Amino acid sequence: MTSKERVFLALNHQEADCVPLDIGGINNTCMHQIIETQLKRELGLEDHGTIVKAYGQGVVIPDKSVVDYFGVDTCCIYLNETRPWIKNPDGTFTDMWGIRQKKSPDDFYYEMCSHPLEKAECVKDLDRYEFEPPTEFMLEGLTERLAENQDKFCILEGFREPMVGLPSWLRGMENFYADLILDKGFSDALHEKIFAYYRLLIDFVMERIGPQIDLVKFADDMGTQTSLLLSPELYRSRIKPFQERLYRYVKETYHKKILLHSCGAIRPIIGDLIEIGVDALNPVQISASGMDPLSLKKEFGEKITFWGGGVDTQSVLNRGTPEEVRKQVKENLEIWKPGGGYVFAQVHNIQPGVPMQNIIAMYETYAKYAAYS
Q: What is the mean pLDDT of residues 72-76?
C-alpha cells in the first residue's frame, strides 16, 4: 500500500494497513530546525541540509533522511510567498503582505511588529491597499518535488490563515476583533477583498500544479486553552460564511479535500467546520478544554478526520519522561485509530529543548501500535 492510498483511506474513514504518519506534511506537524539537526545527529542520519519555509516558526521541510527513516506518508508542497522578504535598514523584514517582522529575543522565531492596515479608518483606506499578484517564484522547485514524491500524499501548504489570522495581522489584533462587532461594513469589505485575492491565488497555483495535489491546507486559529477567541454566534455570523465560500470554491472547482488547522478549545464549532466542508482537523489540541480524544472520537469520529493529537506538546512531549510519552501515544492511538479517520502526529511543532529520547519514544511507540492487524 502506498502512502497516498493510506492517507486517502484515513480521510474516507476506512482502516488501512496502519495509521498514516505525518511529519512535516504541514507547517504544524514539523520540528524546529534546531531539533531536526539534533535528531539527525542522534540517529546518525545523512544531513542533506535544512529547508525552512515557515520563517516565523523556524520549522523545516523534513529532510529526506528523516522521512525515509520513520516511513513518513506525507509530503509538504510549500508555496513560497510572492517574493523573498525585504530586509529593512532597522533589521526588520517586510513580507508579501506588507507586515514587518523582527527576530524574537531568543533568535528562534520571527514576530510581527507592524501592520499595514492598523491605521485604516474606512473602506476607502482599504481600497488603497493592494495585495501583491501571484508570481512564479511562489512555485519554485515544486514541480520537481511533486515528481519525486508521487507515492506520497501531497499537501498544498502556504495559504496561511485567510479569514481570521490574515485580517488580524493586517489590522492588528485589537482592531480586527473590534471591527467584527463595531464596524461590520469595514470588516466585510476586508474579508471580501481577501476572498477575491485568495481565489486568484488558488487559481494561479492549481492551474499549474493542481492535478498532483491531494489536499489543500488552510489555517485559522480560533481557540485559546480554555475557550474560543470569539463567541460561536460571532463566528457563525462574521467568519464562517467567508470560510465556507473559500473551502467550497476549492472543493467544487478543483475537487480537493480540505485540512483546517485551528488551535485551542474549538469543540463548540467543530460541527460548523464539518458543515462547511472541512475534511480533516489539525492539531487536535488535546490539553485544551473539551478536546479530550475519547469524546471527540465518539461525537465526530465518523464525520471528520482527526489529524494530530497523538501526544501533548505542552507538557508531555517536552517535559515528560520517555515512559510517559509512550503511555500517552499508546492510549491515544487506541482511541483514535478504530474505523480510520485518523492521521498520527504530535499536537504541534516540536520546539527547541524537547529531549531527543522523548521524540524517539514517540515515533517508536507509533510504529509499535499503528498497525490495524
A: 98
The C-alpha angle 56, 59, 61, rounded to 5 degrees, equals: 125
Total count of domains within the chain: 1
Cα 188 to Cα 74: distance, rounded to the nearest angstrom: 36
Q: Which domain holds residue 215?
A: 3-369
Pairing state between β 86-87 and 93-94: antiparallel
Residue 300 in contact with residue 333, Cβ under 8 Å? Answer: no
pLDDT in tens, 200-256: 999 999 999 999 999 999 999 999 999 999 999 999 999 999 999 999 999 999 999
Residue position matching grid coordinates 485540512: 259
Q: Which CATH number characterizes residue 142's domain? A: 3.20.20.210
Q: Quick check: 51 and 105 in contact, CB under 8 A?
A: no
pLDDT of amino acid 349: 98
Sorted by sequence, the CB contacts under 8 Å of residue 173 that are 6+ apart come out as none
106 pLDDT higher than 90? no
pLDDT at 208: 98
- Nearest in space to 363 (alpha carbons), one of 327, 319, 314, 329: 329
CA distances (Å), origin 176, targets 162, 170, 299: 13, 8, 32
